[in-house]
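QA checklist item 7 of 12: single-chain prediction sanity check.
[x] sequence parsed
[x] length recorded as 203
[x] structure emitted
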Amino acid sequence: MATGDNALKSWEAVRAEAMRCRGCDLYKCATQTVFGEGPLDAGLLFVGEQPGDQEDLAGRPFVGPAGQIFDRALADAGLDRARTYVTNAVKHFKFVRRGKRRIHDKPNGGEIAACRWWLQQELALVRPPLIVALGATAARSLFGKVVTISALRGRGHALPEGEAWVTVHPSFLLRVRDDREAQYARFVEDLARIGERAKALAR
């Protein structure tokens, strides 16, 4: 059996196990586990925070409003999402109810830590040359400690799993009120630099 077939079977087994995860209490209210997706030989692996409302319902990462911005920014940066692996630091949707709406609630340290094992399995299976943390929660999961985007943004950082870069989460661009176009342009610039670095690492 080819190595790729073995990797796919291993990924499918880990994903199936994650669907039954009871490592923290978030599974009790979420619709389902939202595992990562993408080619297992991807040169880029993106880590977001957690599924949102639409991701929780669809069972796929980055398909809601933030995902639409992410897809547009990737395209503007000359990157093809289909050639990247996309996942989240936390695999269940954490929210608070406001009437009929489910409003995003930031995962805490215990929830991030409980889900870190799943992210580590994905990193071990994909073994990407370059890992990208989208936002502070993803960076906390990757680095194993609280970090700030401003301190780490714009350059690579060595981790046991590979080289890591940090930028904002696409949802930040939905919330920002001032200089939204400039913030979006900077995000695209980050992605373009990350793409070039990934190409260099792959050579």
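[x] summary fact logged: The first helix runs from residue 3 to 18.
[ ] second reviewer sign-off
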